[in-house]
Amino acid sequence: MLIPTTAPPPPPPPPSPVSLLILGAGWTSTHLIPLLTTLSIPHAATTRSGSPTTIPFTYDPTSPSPTPYTHLPRATTILITFPLHTSSQPPHLLSLYRSIHGPHNNWILLGSTGIYHNPSSEWNDESSGYDRENSRAQAEDEMMRLGGCVLSLAGLYDWETRDPRRWVAGGRVAKSKEEVRAKGAVHLVHGVDVSWGVVGVWRRFEEKDGGEGGVRGKRWIVTDLRVYDWYDLVMSWGAGERGEGEGEGEREKKWEFTKWVGELMREEGVRALPRGEERLGRKLDGRAFWEMVGMWPSQGRVG
Questions:
Q1: Mean per-residue pLDDT for 55-68?
Q2: Which end of the chain lies in a sparser environment, N or C, as judged by fewer CB atoms within 10 Å?
Q3: Among candidate residues 74, 90, 108, 103, the one with its CA nearest the CA of residue 214
């Protein structure tokens, strides 16, 4: 007697191709995905465990298996939001993805302006020296060698989950008066402006020259085009009204920082805030990126 057998289920259909694939849908994607949706740019995104709107994917730099990449869609541009830490990781990731989806794709890697270290009195732009011993910088260099584009982002903020007004009392800026004394310039960029910057790079890749004139193999500094003075920000935020959800202890801590800045102004002969640029140390020039993508930051200033 023949026992009927059940045929195995057919494999799931491959994901539909997209214009932009986000590897690692974290904080940046909370601003980027709504923008892509508004602009009708086909996109997909991954998270470690997956969700109703994301694909499960975890990059394993030690694995030679292309299997995890079979679940990803073919994309014309792939955005990597998580840091890569060695020069071997970009070719490893690209080769596994391309073994499934072919070689015709572009890559964007989010980096940090922390690699720039010109002397404290000087400006830094894309031509400036940077820390070549930094593991992220080495990975970024390799990504550029492979034709990718690196966006070196200034401090990321919005007014919801990354509200810089909470950084002072929370101890992210400094924990003592002497640590405040050492603070000079700070550079920031809003998540919405980062998202527009990513779209701008994607558009440049889509041009006839494939981004050869501006994004392929390049690293760009991305800021909101402002240099903020930590003294000025601390004074502004400490003296303001109590923020939403702010406890009494947080309020008192902000006032303590405000008092320290007032004392430091007297000790250092600072007559008014913000201090002059000669006192602020390392400064970043982010003009070239926005000129290249043909747009400008839209989210105003912090303070």
A1: 97
A2: N
A3: 108
Question: What is the reported pLDDT for 301?
Answer: 87
Contact 302, 159 (CB under 8 A): no
- Per the CB < 8 A criterion, the answer to whether 191 and 162 are in contact is yes
How many Å apart are CA 62 and CA 96, to the nearest integer?
12
In eight-state DSSP terms, residue 172 is S
Q: How many CA atoms lie within 13 A of 55 on its CB side?
A: 18
Q: How far apart are CA 58 and CA 47, in angstroms?
A: 7
Cα 180 to Cα 73, 120, 144, distances in angstroms: 48, 16, 36
CB 204 within 8 A of CB 292: yes
Tell me the C-alpha to C-alpha distance, in Å, between residue 103 and each of 45, 68, 185.
Answer: 20, 17, 42
E strands, the chain, where? 18-23, 43-47, 55-56, 75-80, 106-112, 123-124, 149-153, 155-157, 185-186, 188-190, 219-222, 228-229, 283-284
**CA-CA-CA-CA torsion sign (226, 230, 233, 235):** negative
User: What's at 115, amino acid-wise?
Assistant: I
Beta bridge partners of residue 150, listed in sequence order: 109, 219
Side-chain half-sphere of 68: how many Cα atoms within 13 Å? Answer: 20
Residue 263 has a pLDDT of 97
CA distance readout (Å), 194 to 11, 33, 107: 37, 12, 16
Q: Return the bridge partners of 20, or none.
A: 43, 77
Token pair of 284 as six digits: 């970043």
Question: pTM score > 0.90 for this model?
Answer: yes
